[in-house]
């Protein structure tokens, strides 16, 4: 019988990060520099062959509009087809609340619970990390994407 796990996806920038959690503890990390649309089906095929997935979690934005859209559509499809609950939280959860690149010199920032854009003169690195412990209470059943700003 395969291990029962939860899967957490961060696909807002490169590398794509997938955390495999058993009893809410991180047991495996998968990284890929490839495009989400190319690599997610392969990675998740391997995950489903190895594990029994109980819940799906992901960073629903803000960030790259296309990356968020691909991740959401992919995970939402799996959620519906395999009847696996999908949960989300904003990307600031995975980067210690640091600014996230929007476009040009605009960055998304989170102040209290409000996400807005601010112009910053210095280029900031975007580093995301999977938590060692998955806290269900930090995620919402409302898994819709946070696109942040309209299409330009």
Task: Provide a quick synopsis of the model.
The protein is of the alpha/beta class.
How are helices and strands ordered from N to C?
Answer: EEEHEHEEEE
Shape: globular
CATH class: Alpha Beta
CATH superfamily: ATPase, nucleotide binding domain
Question: If classified by CATH, what would the architecture be?
Answer: 2-Layer Sandwich
Cα-to-Cα separation, first versus last residue: 49 Å
Lateral arrangement of strands in the main beta sheet: 3-2-1-4-5
Number of domains: 1
Provide the helix percentage: 10-25%
Strand proportion: 25-35%
- Helix and strand composition category: alpha/beta
Describe the protein:
The protein is built from two helices and eight strands, in the order βββαβαββββ. It has 152 residues and is an alpha/beta fold. The protein has a single domain (3-138), classed as ATPase, nucleotide binding domain (Nucleotidyltransferase, domain 5, 2-Layer Sandwich). The protein has a five-stranded mixed sheet, with helices on one face. Helix 1 (36-50) packs parallel to helix 2 (65-82). The protein is globular. The N and C termini lie far apart (49 Å). The mean pLDDT is 93.
């Amino acid at each position: 019988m395969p291990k029962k796990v939860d899967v957490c996806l961060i696909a807002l920038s490169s590398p794509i990060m997938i955390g495999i959690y058993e009893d809410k503890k991180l047991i495996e990390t998968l990284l890929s520099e490839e495009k989400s649309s190319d690599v997610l089906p392969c990675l998740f095929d391997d995950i489903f062959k190895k594990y029994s997935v109980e819940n799906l979690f992901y960073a629903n934005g803000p960030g790259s509009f296309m990356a968020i859209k691909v991740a959401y559509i992919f995970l939402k499809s799996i959620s519906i087809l395999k009847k696996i609950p999908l949960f989300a939280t904003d990307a600031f959860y995975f980067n210690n609340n640091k600014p996230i690149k929007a476009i040009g010199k605009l960055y998304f920032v989170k102040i209290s619970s409000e996400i807005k854009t601010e112009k910053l003169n210095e280029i900031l690195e975007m580093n995301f990390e999977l938590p060692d412990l998955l806290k269900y209470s930090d995620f919402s059943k409302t898994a819709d994407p946070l696109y942040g700003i309209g299409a330009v």
